[in-house]
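Please predict the structure of the following assembly.
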Amino acid sequence: MQPQTHYSLKAHHSFHFDIYCEYFTRVTDRHALTTALTWAQQNNQPVTLLGGGSNMVFTQSMQGLVVQIALQGIEVIAETTEYVTLRVAAGENWHGFVVWCLDHGYYGLENLSLIPGTTGAAPIQNIGAYGVEIAEYLTAIHVLDRNTHEQKCLDPSLCQFGYRSSQFKSEWKDQYAITAIDLTLDKQFNPKTGYGAIENELKRRNIDAPTAHDISNIVCHIRRQKLPDPDQIGNAGSFFMNPIITADTFATLQHHYPDLPHYPQANGDIKVAAGWLVEQCGWKGKRRGDVGVHQYQSIVLVNHGDGSGDALMALAAEIIDDVKKRFGITLHIEPNIY
Ligand code: FAD
Ligand code: NAP
């Protein structure tokens, strides 16, 4: 293997910071992945895995080898009249895969349309949107142990999938390379329209009985309207997770802030909107040099052009501090920091 040296990552991550890595390689099959991991071991180099780079903040030049996961392929591995189980290679584009499912009459992922990135990274934070999470459909996660190079098939019940979280982000951090995922999808469409934005758009379009394509189109439409396109202005989507607080804490807060948007959870806790908290602290649209808070979406931090990961993290620290002082809530950062 001959990795590229002093390689620019600017085009490979959605903040588009001007960052270089020492070594870079792109792998399109499992053998090449094993070869890359072996090369790194033999040369004593740390490894960073990269998918679409839409959930990474690079704060410094990257030491060692960056491995871009580009394994391709979608196959049907089991099928009944009601369900289909698919195996998707880790480097497939997530939205491309969602569209492929819709075109083949396999349903469940519509609400996750247009989420950037790869299928292999999707389990890392249990991607979710509009009331659906990938964990609901995952039936196996195929991995390569990054140290032993042993192949394993992980049962999703071991992965502790939660709200934008999993074992891959915590105890298993840097332990596995995901090579493929299995998902079991429905052949009968069952729309999930619980989020107000989808309901409103269905009404506006006079659609009473939406098809899966309708829901996907609507989700894409809302997202294009609301979210900044990373190719126009660098960002990683939501920068902060929506905090989940106890009902008691919420009751005290609501007394002072009756407008605080909130969503009760199954266990009685309350999810509150991080974007609202940030906006109330006056951060919407603010800049610190070339990084800032998006002018319409306070939950999205942006790179206006020549920003850096360090400047972004300094901005994030200021925001977290303000929200803590005003509301007593600690915001947690969603993307992976390097
Ligand atoms: P990367 O950013 O490349 O990697 C993320 C992490 O996973 C890194 O730590 C990386 O090392 C690791 N990794 C990548 N591939 C592998 C692999 N094969 N094996 C092991 N580790 C790996 N997220 C949501 O949940 N819901 C949304 O609605 C949503 N909307 C977004 C909108 C925008 C505009 C943007 C920019 C981002 C959004 N995101 C959203 C965040 C992001 O798209 C998801 O987290 C996505 O799954 C990241 O995929 P990626 O391939 O870009 O991962
Ligand atoms: P929104 O509709 O403006 O709502 C703000 C927040 O309130 C959302 O984050 C959502 O939480 C919550 N919410 C709204 N309606 C809800 C309901 N009926 N039940 C429970 N919670 C509700 O949100 P948005 O920013 O435009 O995003 C729309 C969806 O896309 C959300 O699900 C969001 O998570 C997802 N998204 C994620 C990212 C990312 O990078 N992670 C980026 C863009 C969009 P949840 O976030 O828990 O759903």
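The chain has a mean pLDDT of 97. The CA atoms of residues 278 and 319 lie 7 Å apart.
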